[in-house]
Amino acid sequence: MATVSGDIFNEEDEPVQGVTVTINGQVDYSMTTGGNGRFEFQEIETGYDYTISASMNANATNGVSTLDLVLINKHILQAQRLDSPYKLIAADANRSGSITTLDLVQIRRLVLNIANQLPNNTSWRFIDANYDFPDPDNPWLTPFPELINLNNLSGSVANRQFVAIKVGDVNNSAAPNLMATEE
């Protein structure tokens, strides 16, 4: 038997609370991260393949503001580029694999409280922290891993991490320690 554990942090290395983390394979377990962003699954049978995934689709307006709209607009106009692949993914509100004025429309609907969720996206996305983007200026060039695969688990695995991305929040102002419930 083995233990599989890790953490969920945002781009600013702040732990993210309220994330549902699931391990699937020979067993299926789920848990929710606490204030420290940590997850841990115990008594996992070795010798099998497992997949770890993270999800949270709540508080869509957390951290999303007019400043985000301004920064995304500057990026589209090439006046000031977003400087990380995580910010680029956050700006892709409609999950199209690009950043356009359609993303601005979706985010503006959140800011104005016309909508309380994104129609084609979740409010948070999670990427394996060990992943290196081949082209950081184009994170959609190749599919990025939103899960962690553990093939033929031979023993305990620690420190597997996800980077949490708050969709719509490109200035990293979202509070990562809010519980994952709607107000």
List the helices and strands and how they pair.
Blueprint: E1 2-10, E2 20-24, E3 29-32, E4 38-44, E5 50-55, H1 66-76, H2 85-91, H3 101-111, E6 124-128, E7 147-150, E8 157-166
Parallel strand pairs: 1-8
Antiparallel strand pairs: 1-4, 2-3, 2-5, 5-7, 6-8
Helix pairs in contact: 1-3
Name the helicity range: 10-25%
Structural class: alpha+beta
Q: Let me know the average pLDDT.
A: 94
Number of helices: 3
The parts where pLDDT drops under 50 for at least 5 residues are none
β-strand amount: 25-35%
The outline comes out as elongated
The largest beta-sheet arranges its strands as 4-1-8-6
Major sheet: size, sense and barrel closure? 4 strands, mixed
H/E topology pattern: EEEEEHHHEEE
Radius of gyration: 17 Å
DSSP strand tally: 8
Please tell me about this protein's structure:
With 183 residues, the protein is of the alpha+beta class. The protein is built from three helices and eight strands; from the N terminus they run βββββαααβββ. Helix 1 packs antiparallel against helix 3. The protein is elongated. The model has no long low-confidence stretch (mean pLDDT 94).
